[in-house]
Amino acid sequence: MIHKYRIYNIFYLAFLLFLPSGVGIGEILENKDKIHAHMLWHYITREKPYKNYPAWPGKEGFYESTMPPGNILKLYINELALDTVLHKKGVFPDGALLIKENYTDNGELFLITVMYKAKGFNPAGHNWYWVKYKPDGEARLEGKVDVCISCHVGVAGNDYAFTGSIK
Ligand code: HEC
């Protein structure tokens, strides 16, 4: 019995070891009971630093927001999201991440807003998990954030994304 148990343990360990490189982000976060902003911050800054993510095609580098007061933006998206944009898949898959940095006119980062597709989190809102972070990782708003949703719902037909058509 004990012997059998040990073998299972070894498989479990091997499974855990290969997780970070082997599977997509969705699976990693879903292993935990419930997604929350702290866990997501750790993921996007330590495990898979977002600064290494690709840009939204056509939005490389810094650009100006269409919303007053016209902050300077930088938008990073993970590979899952990039695949959706490139191949016009119409809807982002579980695990997709859109991370927008907001800078002041004089180049100071002051806000990071994130959309994370969390499986089963909020089907009515396309399962987007919304977070507004300060640059030090403190979450000011997270989850089903009404203020984010109430504006982005205007582009619900584009899976809540403003930056470009994904269809
Ligand atoms: C009043 C409207 C409005 C509100 C409120 C708003 N957004 Fe946005 N958001 C936009 C627009 C417009 C863009 C496209 C970039 C731009 O022009 O600023 C955008 C872009 C984004 C993007 C890049 C992906 C995309 O949709 O193009 C993310 C991520 C994002 N917002 C997250 C958030 C979060 C998180 C909140 C709440 C804390 C929020 N937004 C609140 C209007 C809004």
UniProtKB/TrEMBL annotation:
Pfam annotation, one family: Cytochrome_P460
Cytochrome P460 domain boundaries: 70-163
Residues that span the membrane, as ranges: none
Species name: Candidatus Jettenia caeni
Name under which the protein is recorded: Cytochrome P460 domain-containing protein
InterPro entries noted in UniProt: Cytochrome_P460 (IPR032033), Cytochrome_P460_sp (IPR038142)
